[in-house]
Specification:
Layout (H helix, E strand, L loop, with lengths): L2 H16 L11 E9 L2 E8 L6 H11 L3 H14 E5 L2 E2 L1 E9 L6 E8 L6 E6 L2 H4 L4 E8 L2 E7 L5 E5 L9 H12 L2 H11 L5 H23 L7 H20 L5 H19 L10 H34 L4 H26 L1
Parallel strand pairs: 1-8
Antiparallel strand pairs: 1-2, 2-6, 3-4, 3-7, 5-6, 7-10, 8-9
Helix pairs in contact: 1-10, 1-11, 2-3, 5-10, 6-8, 6-11, 7-9, 7-10, 8-9, 8-11
């Protein structure tokens, strides 16, 4: 194998590491469930945003919210299969199900009442909305009782959670932390932008500086957007995120500039990416302590996921950096990154 082919092969390996999958970013839709327990009665109230769900599910919910009885019955039928509650192993009996419009068509509330054979004990919640909401849908479930409450993340990796209702449960962050980790690890555009920034970073301190600027910036705009201080439409934010990937990739193919310039780019475009992160929480319409808890946990999860991703790809970058023709490898990889960014940009401008 010639030297040129070896370089091309290494570039391809780096591109594969930088681009986990050639699919659209943010494949995840999120719902917020509140589970209340009162003696032998369990209430399950799920809030979802139809616009982020698969088209068939969105249309079904829209018709049900508009008063279509057959569609409301179809939603109820799916819900009885998708949500199962047990107390001490005994299944709770399905009761009334209502589909309500709680945001002028922007949000749907699925209100489900269940009747259980016993009070207290261990509550088991099992959920699988894949047939209606898609394989990547996740629910943040807040399970409350007179003794306390806690958050849990239910989705493709965890379909069931068990809670001891007799034991006090302090409010937790785990569900939102898990959502943040999953959001960044499936947000391939965010990861690709970050990895493109790190291409050619010669040492740990430069990597730390770039990652810190990106983290600081997206934390600022994530918080501002979730708190309602800024409101940027996704039709603007998503193309800008794709453009940021192209921008950095093109810079990588040119002569390397001073360190402060890369830090400035990481911070500037990090502000835009933070607005993209906010899409996971803003539609839920949280308030008060729930909002503070969600924002803190989600932001922590994003940072943990980001750290995991960097730790996985950094050894590959440092290994390539020791090669005699590392610059050529980085240019091949940056070309692949630019192509991915261009694809996303065209897709987001075309489909909105």
């Amino acid at each position: 194998m010639t030297s040129r082919w070896r370089i091309a092969l290494l570039a391809c390996c780096l591109a594969v590491a930088l681009l986990p999958a050639a699919v659209s970013a943010h494949v995840m839709a999120t719902g917020l469930a509140v589970v209340t327990v009162n003696d032998r009665e369990v209430g399950y109230r799920l809030t979802v945003v139809p616009s982020v769900l698969p088209e068939a599910a969105a249309q079904l919910l829209s018709r049900a919210m508009a008063g279509s009885r057959p569609d409301a019955e179809r939603v109820a039928e799916v819900m009885r299969r998708a949500v199962v509650v047990r107390i001490d192993g005994a299944p709770c009996r399905p009761g009334r199900i209502a589909v309500q419009d709680v945001g002028a068509g922007l949000k749907a509330l699925l209100d489900y009442a269940l009747h259980c054979p016993a009070a207290a004990g261990r509550l088991e919640l099992e959920e699988d909305w894949a047939d209606l909401f898609g394989d990547h849908y996740v629910t943040i479930a807040t399970i409350g009782s007179p003794r306390g409450g806690s958050e849990h993340l239910l989705g493709p990796d965890t379909r069931r959670v068990t809670v001891d209702l007799a034991a006090p449960k302090p409010p937790g962050l785990s569900g939102f932390v898990g959502l943040g980790i999953e959001h960044i690890l499936t947000g391939y555009d965010h990861l690709l932008f970050l990895f493109a920034l790190l291409i050619g970073a010669a040492n740990f301190w430069r990597v730390l500086g770039i990652a810190s600027m990106f983290t600081l910036a997206h934390s600022i705009t994530l918080s501002m957007a979730v708190l309602g201080l800024v409101n940027a439409p996704a039709a603007v934010v998503e193309p800008l995120i794709a453009l940021s990937i192209i921008w950095v990739a093109v810079e990588n193919m040119r002569a390397e500039g001073p360190a402060w310039h890369r830090f400035a780019v990481a911070f500037g475009f990090g502000l835009v990416h933070g607005l993209g992160f906010a899409d996971a929480l803003t539609p839920l319409g949280l308030e008060g302590w729930s909002l503070v808890r969600a924002l803190s946990g989600f932001n922590l999860g994003v940072e943990l996921g980001q750290a995991i991703a960097i730790c996985l790809v950094l050894p590959i970058m440092f290994l390539i950096g020791r090669l005699a023709r590392a610059v050529l490898v980085y240019r091949y990889a940056s070309l692949a990154v630019a192509a991915a960014g261009a694809y996303w940009l065209a897709e987001r401008i075309h489909f909105g």
